[in-house]
Amino acid sequence: MHSSVPPERPFEDIIHTILNNMVFSTLVTLLTIFALFGDDVRIAFCEPSMDQVFFTLSIVALVVFTGELTISCVGKPNYMFEKGGIMGLGFYFLLDGVSTVSLIPDTNLFSLSGGDDGDGTDNR
């Protein structure tokens, strides 16, 4: 006799719980707003001394988004690969991947200049 109880999937259940957690969703939403507008706010309204704070927040956003992308690939069926998707990749996977990669310039990790040439001016 077959049971109508689905097989246990504790790993997927944990991922589902994380991705649908209100605190995690709020964190990702706030970091998304920061990712969209943070660098513009930094350049328009903040002193150069605040740059490192913004770069650090951008790195935090990059790490959180990369983590979300990774656990979504593992725990969501058809997230990474989708039949009929661009090059067989899922739409939301591509969207999340491109947006995550686009944060790299905001982190100042690969800056060609340290920001201050010692002449009292910053290189914005």
Strand and helix layout:
Elements: H1 10-19, H2 22-45, H3 51-75, H4 91-101
Helix pairs in contact: 1-3, 2-3, 3-4
Which class do the helix and strand fractions yield? Answer: mainly alpha
Report the count of strand segments.
0
Distance between the termini: 70 Å
Query: What's the average pLDDT?
Result: 84
Shape: elongated
Number of helices: 4
Low-confidence spans: pLDDT under 50, at least 5 residues? 117-121
Q: How would you sum up the major sheet?
A: none
Strand content: under 5%
Helix/strand order, N-terminal first:
HHHH
Question: How many domains?
Answer: 1
Percent helix among the residues? 55-70%
Query: What Rg do the Cα atoms give?
Result: 20 Å
Task: Describe, in short, the structure shown.
Helices cover 56% and strands 0% of the residues.
Notes on the structure:
The chain has 124 residues and is mainly α. The chain has one domain (11-107). It has 4 helices and no strands. It has helices spanning 10-19, 22-45, 51-75, 91-101. Helix 1 packs antiparallel against helix 3 and helix 3 packs antiparallel against helix 4 (91-101). It is elongated, with a radius of gyration of 20 Å. Residues 117-121 have low confidence and may be disordered.
Give a quick set of tags describing it.
4 helices, elongated, 124 residues, mainly alpha
